[in-house]
Structure formats: structure tokens, C-alpha cells
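Q: Entry one of two.
A:
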Amino acid sequence: MIVMARQRNQIEAVEQAKVIAWAQENIARWPALAFLFHTPNGGARNAVVAMQLKAMGVRRGVPDLMLPLHTVWHFGPLETHKHGLAIEMKVVGGKMDHEQVRWCDWLVSQGWRHAVCYSAQEAIDTIAKYLQGQTTVRNGDAEGKAEPDSEGTKG
């Protein structure tokens, strides 16, 4: 079980690194990509480092990638303001845990767009569409809020 979790985390890390590399290569096209970031709130650490990070404000469940960029989306005569984009990277079949769902719900309630992405390409497409003011729906409604699955989790 621990080996499988480590393998999932490694796959997610590789996919996420591809997204960051793409972002770095596309800053000239979309300068806001310079503000795409990852908060290192996961991973194995020794007890002392874990306590230090917790004291510094690291929180469980924070999405893997965040882009704090206000956009206005137009749907015919209607417009919707989004205050940023948050992406949770998962391997295929992966589910958000309780804390991740809590963050998703909070960010959506604050006007953020939230997406769960299962590959680097899906995350790249999600970011590009966000930057272009387009919306896609995956595992949730048009606001990006995840719907509970049969196990009561979201994503």
C-alpha cells in the first residue's frame, strides 16, 4: 500500500513538473504564468521538518498548482468573475481526500476555478483555456465544484 502511494505521488510529481516546464516556456505568451506556483504541502518529511512547516502555516489539502489571476468569463450576455485557478493533480482513478475537497469547496465559494487534472496535458489545456477565458467541465459543474461520488468524496 505504501509503495503504491509512493508510485502515485511520483507519477503526479512528474506530470506536475511537465506543467511547470510548459508554463516556463510560455511566459512570453502569457506573462501571468510567472505566478503559477506549487505549495509543498505533501510528501514524506522527518518529524522536525514537518513540525516546522506546520508552524509556518503549511496546510493539508491545498491544491497542487495555483494561479492567482482574476479573469472575466463571458457566457452570452452574462459574465462571471474568477479570482484564480487551482489545480489538483491526480493519477487516473485517483480521488481527492477530505481536506482536498474542503479546499476545493472553499476556493470555489471565493470565486476561484478549481479543476482536477489526470495528466500534464489536461492541466496545460485547463490553464490555457483559463487564460483565454474559456471554461471546461470535468468532474463537476461549470463553477468547477466537484460533485460527490458514491463514496461521499469529491473529484
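Q: Entry two of two.
A:
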Amino acid sequence: MLLFVLYSKNLSTITDILPYFRKEIDRAKKKNMKYDFEWLLMVSKTYRLQLAAGANAGGSSKGSGTIKESPLLFTNEEEEFFHEQAELSFEYSVKAERDTMVGGEWDDEENEMEPLRTVMLIPAQKIPAIMEKLQQNLSLPGAAS
């Protein structure tokens, strides 16, 4: 079975939710319920800084105008650990859906951040190791539950 976790950073974090689900799954197994989760499907808010060819991370551009991609950046840093362990992942742009209510003067030479969603399929047996790594790297109390 597939466990799809939908959450909002404002309500909770993935590190709060996963130990709860782990306990529920373990409890269900003890009761001999006929389901088991083998996969976690996770959708994360991510973005990339769009750089013109020849541009460096500082933003100066002297290229031919073609676009190259920067590394994938996660809005919630803990989700990067899940991405590292994903069996499958892909991203898609949500640039067309972004809020147009933001005003202000923008410098045309600034590099633009493209908002994305990254979909990840993570084997359930990798979750405990991910949670342990989160606890070690992000100082999250109880993350290795």
C-alpha cells in the first residue's frame, strides 16, 4: 500500500507526522490488520534559481541568453533528506499558479526563482534511517521514533 501524507508547514512538519503514522502502522500490524504501507508519496515545495548561461550564483550574466538550472532548493530543509532516499522523483513548475498579488519594483537583471513541486516516492523501510539522519543533522528531538 501507499501512504500519501498531505500536510501544511503551518500546521505541522513531516517530522511531527511520520512518527505518528509509524506508531499507527505498528499498532495495526500488532492487531493483524490486512494492510501495510510499503511506500511514502511526498510532494514538496521546491524551487530553482534560473540562471542565464554564463551567470554565476552572484547574478552577473554575460551569456548567450540561454537558461541553465541551479540545484534544487527545498522550502523545508528536512525534505531534502527524503529526496536523497527517493526511488523515484520528478518536479513540475507551478509558476503559472503563483500569487500575482505581490507588488514592487524588480530589477530585470535579478535571477528569478521558479516555484516547483517535487514529487517523491520513498520506500517505507527507508523512513527510520531518514528520521535518524534528521535527528542527527537538524537537532530534532524525538525524530527517530
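A: Comment on entry two: Residues 59-64 have pLDDT under 50 and may be disordered. DSSP finds three helices and six strands in the chain.
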